[in-house]
Amino acid sequence: MTWAVALMGISSFGFISCSSDDDPVVQPDSQVKVIHAVPTGGSVDFYLNGTKQNSSAVAYGEQTGYIATSNGDKTAEFKTSVDNNTILSAPVSFDGGNYTLFATGQAGNNSLTTLLVEDNLQTPGNGKVRVRFVHVAPDAPTVNVVANDSTWATGRTYKSATDFVEVNAGSYVFKLNRSDNGTTAYTSQSIALTSGKNYTLVARGLTSGAGAVVAPLTLQAYEY
Question: Within this chain, do residues 93 and 136 fall inside the same structural domain, yes or no?
Fold first, then answer.
């Protein structure tokens, strides 16, 4: 099964007023959670338009809870929690609904970047889970995602995400196979996906260099 890329916009619906002037369209607030996927990046704090959003530092591999924010264009910043230095600044735009913002890239080589994806969360059917895959491993190749020897996604490039798909709940061993030659870049231990949940499977970490020793390529399941 090949998942489609999940970077779609959200439609907004206005209502026509019975008066001579249209009433303003009231947009719902948005929510965003942050996942820190910068290998060897150290703990960070998250800011929107200059205001700190998290109550405690976010370490590599950790996620925040959902943070309420108003809609519109904003500046997202990631600052080191130790000395408050800005390591990453990027524009983001919210248009209602839930989002996940990934910080990724390699610290120290000017490649830090973000990936903002919409979280289309729904309740799965009985005995099912909803799963998507996000590739934020900076030096990892384009991969195919294999679950218990069944291919779930193909040709997934760095900074790409898939739609959620519904699959059977249960335990899965995942492989990230290179798309170019089929060799396995990573094999997970058994990961339990619990019925009724939404999950994001995140490929993060490094495949080479000194950073790969402390932050090797891995696949982590984040529950939503």
Answer: no
pLDDT digits (tens, 9 = 90+) for 51-83: 999 999 999 999 999 999 999 999 999 999 999
Distances from the Cα of 129 to the Cαs of 1, 101, 118, 152, 170, in angstroms? 15, 22, 18, 14, 9
Q: In what order do the strands lie in the sheet with 72-80?
A: 51-52, 44-48, 72-80, 86-94
Other Cβ atoms closer than 10 A to 218: 16
Whole-number Å distance between alpha carbons of 49 and 72 = 11
Name the maximum alpha-carbon separation found in the chain. Answer: 66
CATH number at residue 79: 2.60.40.1120
In a domain, 15, yes or no: no
Model confidence pLDDT, tens digit, residues 101-138: 999 999 878 899 999 999 999 999 999 999 999 999 99
Q: And the tokens for 194?
A: 């619990």
pTM across the whole model: 0.86
Q: Which range marks the domain in which residue 142 is found?
A: 122-224
Cβ contact 140:134 at 8 Å: no
Number of domains in the chain: 2
Q: Is 11 part of any domain?
A: no
- Whether 93 and 177 share a structural domain: no
130 and 105 assigned to the same domain? no
Residue 112 has which token pair? Answer: 């830090």
